[in-house]
Amino acid sequence: MQGIVATRDAFRNVRRIVRRQLTIVRRRLDRQMTAMVAIRIIILFCLTMPYLSYRMYTFNYPNLPSKPMEYARGRLIYVILFFLFNLNYTISFYIYVILSSRFRRQVKSILLKKYWQLQNCFSCGIKNNRISPENPESFNTNMDPNEND
């Protein structure tokens, strides 16, 4: 019951934001944030429920290794659902890149800045970042203490 009331209050707050005298940019950003959160919740539910359902099923009906084909099928299903479950932790980045033009600009500028610096390092000849002696012939590289040259 509390979940329904909270959802209704959130919906009212979003509608109240639209009615208030806010700047157009602020309204657009609020709508964008609401869309991102709503899509994130839907994706969280869609990617978590299959994994949790399968875990409950395997808890009630264990998949024993005595039947190799069924065990292999069960492990394959588990690995696929586990992958989807862990995709929840990376999906936010892609949601923000798809829905937010502001976030896209920031990611683009950061990536371009990083790769531009790498490009400049390679173009100016800095490929080997090691310290080496100026005259390597003057140093004895023989590590054997018994041998004197």
UniProtKB/TrEMBL annotation:
Which residues are listed as membrane-spanning?
A: 37-57, 77-99
- Alphabetical keyword list: Membrane, Transmembrane, Transmembrane helix
Q: Which domain of life is it from?
A: Eukaryota
The UniProt entry, under Gene3D superfamilies, shows: Rhodopsin 7-helix transmembrane proteins
* Name of the protein described by the UniProt record: G-protein coupled receptors family 1 profile domain-containing protein
